[in-house]
Design a protein that fits this description.
Largest sheet: 8 strands, parallel, barrel
Number of domains: 2
Structural class: alpha/beta
Bound molecules: NADP nicotinamide-adenine-dinucleotide phosphate
Order of helices and strands: EEEHEHHEEEHEHEHEHHEHHEHH
Number of strands: 12
CATH superfamily of the largest domain: NADP-dependent oxidoreductase domain
Shape: globular
Radius of gyration: 20 Å
CATH class of the largest domain: Alpha Beta
Length: 326
């Protein structure tokens, strides 16, 4: 599989990232890890490695910590594997009732960042994270406090590089102004059906801009500064690749049909074309795959064989936005 070096790092990673949200048995706090969860994680890890994927995305909240725990268990079965792969995790979202009586919230305090990383490392059974992302913006954050936590984690060898997720340009610039090292990633929802990142560029100077607030300058800022753009939910949770379209608008149904047409013409699965639409973007968007199924990982890997022409790229975009280009 194609590898790229993340700018401002010495991390050489696969063009596709294996997202680990589907491991560990879902979101129920009471679930206990079983042999079946371990088997699922082992098959997932083995298939990813077989395909050449060496980059794994976690968050401390996935499956209430069990995604990291079960990944750590199966990783430990392969001595020496840790040094061959790149692990990223996230912190900053806190569940309700942690501690009892508290609401769900975001927490970029020094104490929460540092203690969250210690717990992540414990669950994964590793001494270090390659990348730590702040998961969702905390309105009450202080740049100095985050910078202090990052500096301490780096000095202790617990985290090599830092980034963000779901942050707009202003938030990134604010945080960056406190940090000695460049932020290396911003993980955002980007896909054919969540195309605000593309829409923002062509909607400028139009009577009715058709993009969600917040996207202004994000892609260009990241390209200029070398911040890797990572796409979460790149397959719209299967909507364009055989999943449920019943609650989606006509434009999504038409786009699914067009994805299938381009896929059939090339003899590849629909996943390959839907992901190729992201891969074709010059910002070198890195899709974070969400499937936990080995067969779907294989289907996703075929995306690297697909080069969409400019005409195909725009026809998919036009179909997904449900109206012609301005
Ligand atoms: N930073 C953030 O805020 C954030 C938010 C969400 C996710 N993430 C990260 O991004 C990764 C990807 O997100 P995602 O899981 O939403 O990505 P996705 O690839 O768009 O969706 C994957 C999900 O859709 C299901 N799916 C795929 N194809 C399907 C089909 N044809 N029919 C029915 N279901 C289908 C998968 O089930 P199977 O497992 O059965 O294939 C899986 O549950 C996550 O693993 C996580 O690492 C980050």
């Amino acid at each position: 599989m194609e590898k790229i070096v993340i700018p401002n790092t010495n991390l050489r990673v696969s063009r596709l990232v294996a997202g680990c949200m589907g491991l560990g048995g879902g979101w129920d706090k009471g679930t206990v890890l079983t042999k079946e969860h371990e088997t699922q994680a082992r098959k997932f890890l083995d298939k990813a490695l077989e395909l050449g994927i060496n980059f794994f995305d976690h968050a401390n909240i996935y499956a209430v910590g069990r995604a990291e725990e079960v990944f750590g268990r199966v990783m430990s079965e392969q001595p020496g594997l840790r040094e061959k792969i790149v692990i990223q995790s996230k912190c900053g979202i806190r569940w309700a009732d942690d501690p009892p009586g508290s609401p769900q919230r975001f927490d970029f305090s020094y104490e929460n960042i540092v203690s969250a990383v210690d717990a992540i490392l414990r669950r994964l059974g590793t001494d270090y994270l390659d990348i730590l992302l702040l998961h969702r913006p905390d309105v009450l954050w202080e740049g100095e406090e985050v910078a202090r936590a990052f500096a301490e984690l780096k000095a202790a060898g617990k985290v090599k590089y830092f980034g963000v997720s779901n942050q707009n340009r202003a938030w990134m610039e604010y945080l960056q102004s406190f940090l000695p090292d460049p932020l290396v990633a911003n993980q955002l929802q980007m896909s054919l059906l969540h195309h605000g990142f593309a829409e923002v560029g062509i909607s400028f100077n139009q009577a009715a801009p058709g993009y969600p607030d917040g996207w202004e300058g994000v892609v260009e800022y990241c390209r200029l500064k070398g911040v890797s753009l990572q796409a979460w939910s790149p397959l719209d949770r299967g909507a364009l690749t055989g999943g449920d379209l019943s609650k989606l608008p006509e434009s999504a149904r038409k786009t699914a049909a067009l994805v299938k047409k381009y896929a059939d013409a090339r003899g590849v699965p629909a996943e390959a074309v839907a992901l190729a639409w992201l891969l074709r973007h010059p910002a070198k968007i890195v899709p974070i795959l969400g499937t936990s199924r080995p067969d779907r990982l294989e289907a996703c890997a075929k995306s690297l064989e697909v080069n969409l022409s400019r005409e195909e790229w725009y026809s998919l975009f036009e179909s997904a936005r449900g109206k012609a280009m301005p």
